[in-house]
Amino acid sequence: MTAHLWEKSYPPGVSWDAPMPPPVAIESILDKAAANWPDRVAIDFYDRTLTFAQLHDLAIRAAKGFQSLGVGPGINGSFQLRPVSCRAHHFRFAGNAHGGYGFRLPEP
Question: Between the chain's N and C termini, which has fewer beta carbons within 10 Å?
Answer without folding.
Answer: C
